[in-house]
Each structure stands twice: as C-alpha cells, then as structure tokens.
Automatic annotation (TrEMBL):
Highest rank taxon of the organism: Eukaryota
Gene Ontology terms, MF aspect: oxidoreductase activity
UniProt xrefs under InterPro entries: NAD(P)-bd_dom_sf (IPR036291), SDR_fam (IPR002347)
Gene3D superfamilies for this protein: NAD(P)-binding Rossmann-like Domain
Keywords: NADP, Oxidoreductase
Family per similarity comment: Belongs to the short-chain dehydrogenases/reductases (SDR) family.
Protein name: Short-chain alcohol dehydrogenase
Amino acid sequence: MPYPAPKLTLADRKALFHGIWAPKPTFTEKDYPPFDGKVVIITGGSSGAGYETAKSLAGSTNAKIYIFSRNEAKTLAAIKKLKEEVAKEYKKKSTDVSFVQIDFNDLSTIKPAVEKFLSLENRLDIIIHNAGYMLKELGQTTAQGHELHWGINALGPHLLQKLLDPILIKTSKTNKKGESRIVWVASSSQFWAPKGGINWDDVDNKDSTDPILLYAQSKSFNIIQSITWPKKHPEATNVISSSLCPGLLKSDLHRDSGLFVKILSKLLFYNQRYGAYTELYAAFSPDITNGTHSIAFGVPGTIREDIKSDTANHDKAWKFLEENVKEFT
C-alpha cells in the first residue's frame, strides 16, 4: 500500500471502539429547533441513514426538505413511505419533502439539479452531504473517468457545494448564529487512509486491490473539505462546516461488501435510525463548531492528526478538487 496509514494513537483507537459500544443518543428530536421556514437539503435521502435523517427532520421540525438523489422512482416511493411513517410515528399529518434528481456518478447532472432547486427556493439553511458509495467492484469509474469512491463521495459533493455556496452564504446572513450549516458525512475509515488521507502518487488508485483504501481516502477528502471550506470562505462567518461518522449501521451501504462485513454488520452494527441522530447532532447541536468531527450517536469525535493538521495538504486537496470540477461550474 502506498503511503501506509500511520499507527493509531490511543485517542484514535478509543474512537474506533466507541463505534462498537456507542451509548444511546442523548441529543434527539426533543432538542431540535422548530426550523419554521427553513430549507434543508439531504443527499442520498432515499435509503439508509439519509432516509432516517429526512424522516426525523420531517417529523420533528417544520423545515422544507429536499432529497437530492439519483433514482426518481425509488426516491418518490421513499418520500411516500416517509410521509406515512411520519404521520404514524410523529402524529404529524403534513410534511414538506421534495425530490431533485442528481447523479454524483456524472458531474454534468449537478448544475441542472442546482438550477432546479434555485427555481424553487430562495434560501438554503443546511445541507447534509449524506450520499455515499462503498466497496463495489474495483476498476469502475465515473462518467468523467474518476475512480468511483472519491468521484462520488468527494468530487460530486464538492461541485454541488460550490454551486450552492452563494445561496447558502446569502441565507446565513439572515440567520441566527449557528443556524446555517454544512454537514459532511465521512467515516471512521479515515483511520485506514494513506498518510495525510490521500495517495497523491495516484489519487484514482488505479492499481489498488484494496477497496477499503479507496473508501477511506474518499472519506478523508470529506474531512478535509469540512475543515477547509470555512478557510476558503472567510465571508461566511455564520456558516458552520463539520464532519462526522454516523456510526456502524445496518444500511444499504454494505450491500456489496464481503461476507465477513455482512456477518459483522448483523452481529454488531446498529439500526440505521441511530445514524440520523449523529447527522442531526451535527446539524443542530450548539456544541458544533467549524472543523469539528462527530461520532455515534452524537458526541465529539477524533480526526487522525495527520489528516487534521496538515494545512498544506488541505490546500492541495482543495485545489485538486477545484481543478476537477471547474469544467462543470
């Protein structure tokens, strides 16, 4: 493996074990603001933790929710199910949840998705970059030829965020302190990423036979994005950007994993609903500040030191992302 991962510190190991024996969430629906008139985007909200996040948000707040996802039929069915479950579980008859089609596998679909959103809304208060890809067949690439993990998990969200920055920043100037947020759903797989989080000899890792490395690198990108976004947007003093690991969840993300991971998931992983508590902790908790990292199920977490502190590497990653999306802005 190029750039082997550094040895884990005691704090790193503690964060990993926390995922297996995570305490029950304490920051839950009772703590969420009403969010009247606010607008939230959740990517990949048709299944898994994204669906549960959208449902919890719809049931416990009055926010307008947009699910950005690829499959129209699947997402519309999910929204129908969500509304039925909200009515039953939260005793709430009316919810405002809409669909916008986007495909992070193809950067050319992202600007049209943003244009559709902007034709419907004049504000954006929170975006949760939840959509993700994990551990499928090696060697596959996006429409633009990028390795799928970092293309879908990092590059696509980077372009989406870039195109939404103007409305998010504009909205933040009308919000109370801490209301405007960017939530980057990363992973504790950061601890297996190459040194600095990224294999700069070959970001696409075309010769790699280790899907864990590919996934870990893509999620290290997310952490770096969360840390670097505020530095690149000094005018956005009222926007909080943070990352998280939602927890070890029984979700569709593992549908293409090996037999060992599937068995482990059944034995040790948690109901995907718990992941929503991690995501909404990052979205609403007053304890969240720029660059912080949350772990299951809504507590402060640890970022590997070489990923967290190398500002030159952050700038290099940001420049690399910018160069790869500029054609589509």
